[in-house]
Amino acid sequence: MTDGRCLVLVRHGETVGNSSIRYFGRTDLLLSGLGRAQMRAAANWLESSLLTSHFAPVFASPLHRATEGARLIAGVAAPVVEIQEFVEVDFGLFEGLTAEEIRARYPVEFDRWNRDRLDPAYIYPHGESRAGFVERVGRGVKRMLELLEGTTAAADGSAALLVAHRGVIRAITQRLAGVEPVIELGSIQVLRRTSGNPGWRAEALDVTEHLSRVE
């Protein structure tokens, strides 16, 4: 670990509702057995690669799949700061559906979604706009960084940790480091900022090697 700050961002693991194939935003699902194993594998990778098992501060979305993931990585006794703005996007009518189910039930909206989903003006039907989502996450980032700045960089080389959702992590990495990784379930992103430098750089993106033997 070098002087400065290290921010580890982990997408939560698989859920009881099969988040790998279904679009869950606001639905508060629990991790499945597989999801818990993915979080433990992430903890092992971070310990071997970053040479630390101490994370502070620890941040998470307030949804259970994120807070539980944070504790599985940082330890059950670790205090977790829940940031409300880091709830996943509101998918509206698409909530809980697979892509094929969305296509079958809402063909017009499905086509518009595929065409315009990256447009800031796009709004999920009966859900949240992309612009509103990015603005909301931005407020959460501001709060997270303020809390991070309020803590002294640990001499033991600990890293800050955030466990959240795909859309949230992608918005954060784009805002801080100008990158938009894929972010699969259980994947790890590592951002670093050196002392005296206000900018963040991506040190590792879309790390999934730790998931290859998870069943």
Question: Can you tell me about this structure?
Answer:
The chain is built from six helices and six strands, in the order βαβαβαααβαββ. It has helices at residues 33-50, 64-74, 99-105, 107-116, 130-149, 166-177; strands spanning 5-11, 55-60, 80-82, 159-164, 188-193, 201-207. Strand 2 (55-60), helix 2 (64-74) and strand 3 (80-82) form a beta-alpha-beta unit. The longest helix has 20 residues, at 130-149. The model has no long low-confidence stretch (mean pLDDT 93).
Percent of residues in beta strands: 15-25%
The fold-level CATH name of the largest domain is Rossmann fold
> What's the total number of strands?
6
Alpha plus pi helix count:
6
Please name the fourth-level CATH homologous superfamily of the largest domain: Phosphoglycerate mutase-like
What is the residue-mean pLDDT, rounded to a whole number?
93
How far apart lie the N and C ends?
31 Å
Widest β-sheet, arrangement of strands = 3-2-4-1-5-6
List the uncertain runs: none
What's the shape? globular
Helicity range of the residues? 25-40%
Any idea what the CATH architecture of the largest domain is?
3-Layer(aba) Sandwich
Task: Present the secondary structure layout.
Elements: E1 5-11, H1 33-50, E2 55-60, H2 64-74, E3 80-82, H3 99-105, H4 107-116, H5 130-149, E4 159-164, H6 166-177, E5 188-193, E6 201-207
Parallel strand pairs: 1-4, 2-3, 2-4
Antiparallel strand pairs: 1-5, 5-6
Helix pairs in contact: 1-2, 3-4, 5-6
